[in-house]
Amino acid sequence: MTKSSSYPTTPRSRVKRFHERGDHERAAVHAVLDASMLAHVAYVMDGQPYCTPTTHWRVGDWLYWHGSSASRMLKQQKAGVPVCVTVTLLDGLVLARSGFNHSVQYRSAMCFGTARIIDGAAEKAAALQAVVDRFFPDRTAALRPMLAQEAKATMVVGMQIEEASAKIG
Q1: DSSP class of residue 35?
Q2: Inter-residue contact 79 to 67 (CB < 8 Å)
Q3: What is the pLDDT of residues 67-108, one digit of tens each?
Q4: Domains present along the chain, CATH in parentheses
């Protein structure tokens, strides 16, 4: 079966306000995700909503983020909880003759999926190499191997993007 060029449009991923600025095409969503260095991961823990900023990286239709193995956010996601990951790029400020008409130019993406801990040693090492090389291309080739203690102290979370939309405003 061939993968669709766009993510499914559902009630939770449909862009409602200024819908003409919305895009469910994988290429558009991926472009926004890849241009952003910071994501916000939203999840519910014990009935309380949380939203945590973190660096992220993408490999195909998977988003990844990482942090301390002691992190409350990451421990919660170990259970395979639904999450919403958003990124926003502020491209410009728009001035107008009235304050009401001032605006911003931006690109954003909202992705839905189920978080899971990446705990296989090879998969975790590949994911951590991908984050370093994303921000510093080919940097891992010059680094010493990760120590077992460093790997133990770091948790990696992955989420297959099930639904997503981009909005260009």
Answers
A1: H
A2: no
A3: 998 887 787 777 788 999 999 999 999 999 999 999 989 999
A4: 19-168 (2.30.110.10)
**Structural tokens at position 36:** 């952003």
Residue 39 · residue 53 · CB < 8 Å: yes
Candidates 88, 79, 151; CA nearest to 115 is 79
Please check whether residue 11 is in contact with residue 163, taking contact to mean a CB–CB distance below 8 angstroms. no
Contact 76, 43 (CB under 8 A): yes
pLDDT digits (tens, 9 = 90+) for 25-84: 899 999 999 999 999 999 998 899 999 999 999 999 999 999 998 887 787 777 788 999
Residue type, 74: L
Is residue 7 a contact partner of residue 28, using CB atoms and an 8 Å limit? no
Q: Tokens 């120590």 sit at which residue?
A: 147
Closest CA to 155 of 64, 84, 81, 85: 64
Please compute Rg for the chain using Cα positions: 18
pLDDT digits (tens, 9 = 90+) for 97-138: 999 999 989 999 999 999 999 989 999 999 999 999 999 999
Q: Does residue 90 contact residue 106 with C-beta atoms inside 8 Å?
A: yes
